[in-house]
Amino acid sequence: MKQITVVGSGVMGKGIAYTCAVSGFNVVLNDLNDEILAAAKKDIEGLLDSSFRGGFLKEETYNFAKMNLTYESNLGLAAKDADLVIEAVLEKIELKIEVFQKLDRICRPETVLATNTSTMSPTEIGAQTSRPSKVVAMHFFNPVHKMKLIEVVKGLETSEATVEFVKGIAESLKKEAVEVNEFPGFVTSRMNCLIGNEAMNMLMEGVASAEDIDKAMKLGLNHPMGPLELADLVGLDTRLRNMEYLYAALGEKYRPCPLIVNYVKAGRLGKKSGKGFYEYS
């Protein structure tokens, strides 16, 4: 393993790139243009600086990450030498397939292609490439540098060698991996979407305030975050896309709450927009 390329520099892409870099990998972060990447670089270097000042990173690790994390808007240049590519673009199956088809043409035959999807099918994505045995889902969690889990999701054609390879990467990133056979929503997203959607329905029905619903889940069921806080952190637009996918795949119990539909229409996307179920300065 020499190089990991991360495609997409949103919240998850930045987190994955940071985590891979501080774990000793050479990392190339790719996005559509240099302006987007400049903003991502500012955020990642800010996290590196604060982690170093706070004593969470040794000086050697800090310097390595800064030197070996590069930013490249040309996908061909970013991915041609990668041993592993982790895609972290929007949760839209058409977009993911387009990215994977490009990567399939660019990357060496032995390169493993992973999607950081929370719901979508690695089988469907892999089938659009010439290497379905080397396509897998690596579902990271936000914030990536703190959360300990990676769901490793096998598509129908994913080889055991590919699964073992990405489980080894997870271990190098100091993460725990769980192996999941593909089914819509995997393990965590199916549960999370149900809990979050029910919390939204209760808020809409006036059962309790957002604060009290979250407090009940944290203090009564020992959840580290309330479901509405978590939805704001993930992004309500992202959560809605996940719900719509699960609703189409698994049926009525995943029908999105009308409240989240209206919030997304209004631009209340959660923490990233400054307002969701809560307001953020």
TrEMBL record:
<protein>
    <submittedName>
        <fullName>3-hydroxyacyl-CoA dehydrogenase NAD-binding domain-containing protein</fullName>
    </submittedName>
</protein>
<dbReference type="InterPro" id="IPR008927">
    <property type="entry name" value="6-PGluconate_DH-like_C_sf"/>
</dbReference>
<feature type="domain" description="3-hydroxyacyl-CoA dehydrogenase NAD binding">
    <location>
        <begin position="3"/>
        <end position="182"/>
    </location>
</feature>
<dbReference type="InterPro" id="IPR013328">
    <property type="entry name" value="6PGD_dom2"/>
</dbReference>
<feature type="domain" description="3-hydroxyacyl-CoA dehydrogenase C-terminal">
    <location>
        <begin position="185"/>
        <end position="280"/>
    </location>
</feature>
<dbReference type="InterPro" id="IPR022694">
    <property type="entry name" value="3-OHacyl-CoA_DH"/>
</dbReference>
<dbReference type="InterPro" id="IPR006176">
    <property type="entry name" value="3-OHacyl-CoA_DH_NAD-bd"/>
</dbReference>
<comment type="pathway">
    <text>Lipid metabolism; butanoate metabolism.</text>
</comment>
<comment type="similarity">
    <text>Belongs to the 3-hydroxyacyl-CoA dehydrogenase family.</text>
</comment>
<keyword id="KW-0560">Oxidoreductase</keyword>
<dbReference type="Pfam" id="PF02737">
    <property type="entry name" value="3HCDH_N"/>
</dbReference>
<dbReference type="InterPro" id="IPR006108">
    <property type="entry name" value="3HC_DH_C"/>
</dbReference>
<dbReference type="Pfam" id="PF00725">
    <property type="entry name" value="3HCDH"/>
</dbReference>
<dbReference type="InterPro" id="IPR036291">
    <property type="entry name" value="NAD(P)-bd_dom_sf"/>
</dbReference>
